[in-house]
Design a protein that fits this description.
Layout (H helix, E strand, L loop, with lengths): L10 H6 L4 E4 L8 H11 L6 E4 L4 E3 L2 E3 L12 E4 L6 H10 L4 E4 L12 H14 L2 E3 L6 E3 L4 E2 L8 E8 L2 H14 L4 E6 L8 H10 L5 E6 L5 H11 L5 E5 L4 H11 L6 H10 L3 E3 L2 H13 L8 E6 L2 H13 L9 H11 L9 E2 L9 H12 L3 E8 L4 H4 L5 H18 L3 E5 L7 H8 L4 E2 L2 H20 L19 E2 L2 H10 L8 E3 L5 H8 L3 E7 L11 E5 L4 H15 L5 E8 L5 E10 L3 E8 L4 H4 L2 E5 L4 H9 L18 H16 L4 E12 L2 E4 L2 E5 L10
Parallel strand pairs: 1-2, 1-5, 5-6, 6-7, 10-11, 10-12, 12-13, 13-14, 15-16, 15-17, 17-18, 18-19
Antiparallel strand pairs: 3-4, 8-9, 8-11, 20-30, 21-24, 22-23, 22-24, 25-26, 25-28, 26-27, 28-29, 28-30
Helix pairs in contact: 3-4, 5-10, 6-7, 10-17, 11-17, 12-13, 13-15, 15-16, 22-23
Amino acid sequence: MTTLDTPARTALERLLDPRSIVVVGASANPAKRGYQAIRALQESGYAYPVYPVNPKTGQILGLDVCASIDQIPYGADVALIAVPAPAVPGALRECAAAGIAGAVVLANGFGEVGEDGADLAAALAAAVDDTGIRVIGPNTSGLLNLTSGANLVGLQNVPRGPISVITQSGNMLLSLVNDGHALKGPGFHAYVGLGNQADVRYDECLVELARHPETGVVAIHSEGFTDGRSFLIAAARTVPGTPVALLRGGRSEGGRRAAASHTGSIAGSDAVTTAVLRQAGVELVDRSDELAVVAGALATCAPIALGRTVAILSDGGGHAALAADALAAHGIESARLGERTRQHLRHLLGPAAAVSGPVDAAGATDADPMVFAEATEILMRDPAVGLVLIIGLYGGYHLRFDPGLRDAEEATAGALLALSIEYDVPLLVQSCYASLDIANHDRLRAGGVPVLSSIEHAVRVAVALHRRGRLMADHAARSSLILPPPASPLPGSGILDEPTARRVLADAGVDLGVWTFVRDIDAVAAAVAAYRRPCALKVVSAQVVHKSDVGGVRLNVVASNATEHAEAIIGSVSAAIPDARIDGLIVTPMADTGVELLVGATRDPIFGPVLAFGTGGVLVDAVRDVAFRAVPLTEPEAREMIEETIVSRMLDGYRHLPAVDRTELARLLVRIGDFVATHPEISELDLNPVIASGRGFMPVDVRIVLSRRTSGERDE
């Protein structure tokens, strides 16, 4: 048997960087994909073996055709499967028998078409499970590696550069490439079209592409993750070395329906997904026209150093104000310049200039563009400045004012590049002339400086570099997001009764304060008297979820009226829910005055256990002030989570409310997160409200819901 010399590479490595390709379903018909793929490989300069397979032997584009897969040399890297869907499972088994590491399956008609494709999808999955062959697709636009010329997409004239792309949509690749052309961006290294994700997933491609030395950033378009937790872990591991920019489809209900019909994916809750992806360090973009520009800048620009911000340098006040407003909308203030900086700028730019930030040159650059470089150096010396954003007409002065300024603008470009290197401060340029072919702009781009026509795009890039600076400064203090081994399962299923829920949380180190569970109504008065202060009474019943709604709570109860209140609770609950089984009452001392918080957790179907924090009490549904994080989380992440909420403004002694210890609150969130992370049987947990006062945190109501799992069932 003839074999290929295959180095010791994993199947996924061979799939994403193939050194031999088999085209199953090769065709002599130029209209067929099996012909177009071979032509694209030749036109892209692919220098490794290509083996066409078709029962009708002969030649295609000068290559000898094999009648069947078993006739090719054993151990090829990749097979492009260009046959109809019903023939795919059999073709995959034949490829595996021939030692082929992976396959790119073009055909649609599988899970994305619903029940009609379910049997075929199951047969494909069985072929993967039985043989171990790695599969991209089905329903994929293909695979592209510009470094090697492995063009299994057929797209030509794609510029080479540092952007690697993972999507489920071939149209998104076209959008990115065309946007890159329009932006004169840095170009692309690789593309993987995952299609239905029957086997190879986002997280695997992310880790592998980030290992390619040619990859400077990974740009992702996603319509849903089959294993969201694995993606979070992969992103958290990857982003310190390789930035990740992501655009999501399926965020709205209509978008989720479209995503499901297109790829069979299921998109999770938008709020949860946004929060946990940002937690993992992913730079999220909201618009399709932002992905290429943000990814390109992350690949070529240094991040903004922690504690520094953006200095705006403009040749017009209108543009400067728009840029400052756009920054503020993202929560970033433009740099507050020091007195020495302002004095130097005033001396350079003259009395008409605005020098407090944003800086408006007020015509000082019109006759001498090199003033931009001189002002930039002054700004880069200021310790508040982490990036200089030049706004306005730069690069087109020789078009707008005087052709004789061409050389001066060219010299300015060189000076700007040198300054960015000398001071280690990134530079962005927004110019009304960015869409034109201008040599000084091209020189800046070649040096890694984005030159953009849109103020909004320029600001969006600055925001991404600002966030990346924060990430790089604190990534060591962030969670790996790897779930710990599960602890011994909690007893029961469904909703735990509150006394049991309180006990398991106490065993986990969560302080719930003092409380008493009484089964006998005659013992209520003694329990209240023992606390020597007014108490709250709450019904304990599996049939009662919202106790206050059915009269199941009484406040400020004292020993003398405790029995009366207990009887009233039982009467109210029995009248509202006649079949309710009342197990007893919980007695707790009344909490101190404080801020009502929500601490909760849920098991997201895509990302696994997620912690929630925000405004609690009766305002939970009305205000919807909540932040999310995947667990386990660290204390810095918990503090970050707290600061995102509106209720955090009330924790430092707002009006009559006491100040709350934020560090202890963060530790409480971490403990709850650790508890949920080690108990995969918990589907929901609610502490609502948690009264936060100067003396600590008292969960008033405790609710834990366990999933009903069969024996031996484990989490994903």
